[in-house]
Amino acid sequence: MAVTSKSETEGKTAEIAACLFLQKQGLALLEKNYRCRYGEIDLIMQDSAEVVFIEVRLRRQTYLGQAVETVDKKKQQKLIKTALLYLQKKRWLDTKHCRFDVLGMDSKNNIEWIKNAFSLDFF
To answer: Which of 2, 3, 12, 81 would bridge 38 by S-S if both were Cys, CB 3.0 to 4.6 A apart?
Structure first.
């Protein structure tokens, strides 16, 4: 039996809250916690014709910066590789437009949503 830490539980709770928030904004859930050899994408959603890959970040204390600021270039590269593999497996690589969003939350459930936080051009 695996032991779940408090931070893991809080992270999963943040992902659920983020998903509900985004669904209220009109996005449709395609997949949660997609994992492959390159990494994990928290949420994959559809926004009109776009496939949206979403990284959810929770930061209880903001004195070190906002949650969205923690998605560095290395994490972006992992997300891009993971997304490309997802699109390839779905046979959507040449047929679907995509974007990468970052959704940050704090301990008071304030949400900061950055659409198009980075792009495939980065890679």
So the answer is: 81
